[in-house]
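User: Last request for today: this protein with flavin-adenine dinucleotide, please.
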Amino acid sequence: MDFQFSDEARMAIDGAKRFAVEKLGPGAAERDEKAEVEVKLLKELGELGYLGMTVPEEHGGSALGAVAYAGSVVEVAKVDAGVAVAMSVQNSLVNDAIEHFGTEAQKGEFLPKLASGGWIGCFSLTEANAGSDPASMRTTAVKDGDGYLLNGTKNFTTNGAIADAVIVFTRCDLGGKPANSAFLLKKGTPGFSIGKHENKMGIRSSSTTEMVFTNCRLPKEALLGEEGKGLKIALTTLDGGRIGIAAQAIGIAEAALDESVRYSKERVQFGKPIAELEGIQFMLADMATEVEVAKTMLFRVAWMKESGAKRYTKEAAMLKLFASEMSHRVCHKAIQVHGGYGFMKEYKVERLYRDQRITEIYEGTSEIQRFVIARGILG
Ligand SMILES: Cc1cc2nc3c(=O)[nH]c(=O)nc-3n(C[C@H](O)[C@H](O)[C@H](O)COP(=O)(O)OP(=O)(O)OC[C@H]3O[C@@H](n4cnc5c(N)ncnc54)[C@H](O)[C@@H]3O)c2cc1C
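Assistant: Here's the final one, the structure of the complex with flavin-adenine dinucleotide:
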């Protein structure tokens, strides 16, 4: 076993850390307060290669691999979890789906632009009445000449308002049998528009919107993967997505731990820093241990993906479940270490506590992860 990062991965993760601290740090609290999505910052990340980390060089990617990607998302999430989710969606839900299921023409047209940050992408699966149960989606794709006509509304789409490339999942009719298909389309396609912009509890520097399709005509070349295999494409892609969300959750937790260590050395009660109190030390020890366990899992599952494991569904679900719930526990303790100050917006742990919450919900709730793990164990 080798627990060292490769030199390339180490450099990439260090670079992400520098970018996060220098470029994302100064405006992070303000972006959260104003719910501001700064596309410029995402594009800068793209120019540095961080939006195409698992895309091969021949398709314009930096090909740094899943381990470097996971470590980089951790560093970005420590500073701005909203930017981290945008980065995660682009790398693991959009690029990976195109790389694995796209035609050569789709790869050639979309991947170089996405991998360089020229374009932002989104992955639109969820609907108002189809969340944990995506098979019940109502958006339809009906054959229309040699193309398709899409109708319906998707919701809660990350990067929705800023996306140039959209992956959308629909119902379709395969000779009388209901099935699902995936499509890849561009912003500006007639019949496609952005609906409601969500006002969120956390990750407020990311965009979350409805995506509306009204008689939206797509040529047959817009089909992503095989007709009728939409759900399989979505679920396979989400295995990789869960690595990104786990990395986001770990970054948030690590930041909460760092803030708590610093604060406990500064805050004096009963004539000494609270870091000298055993009650505080035990909380810090538990927080640090939990972060360490989750990080070890993160890089193992990322390594499985990078080394070409065919499926790592159960392991990705375990990782996402543990990392997101661990992050919840750590952020909870971080507020406790900060006392009343942790409840105030001036302190970063207040934002981390809100940002953490979504990691237990999107890309499959904790209940759905337990369901996937149980199926993996029981067969
Ligand atoms: C900020 C944000 C960003 C998002 N980004 C995207 C995106 O980019 N693309 C996208 O497609 N979607 C996105 N989503 C949607 C997200 O993936 C869903 O919200 C999530 O999958 C849960 O679906 P739901 O909200 O409909 O909850 P529901 O499915 O209605 O779940 C409600 C409750 O019931 C539980 N439950 C449901 N089924 C079961 C079961 N079988 N067993 C036990 N418990 C169950 C759930 O765990 C949960 O506790 C985003 C959501 C948010 C809030």
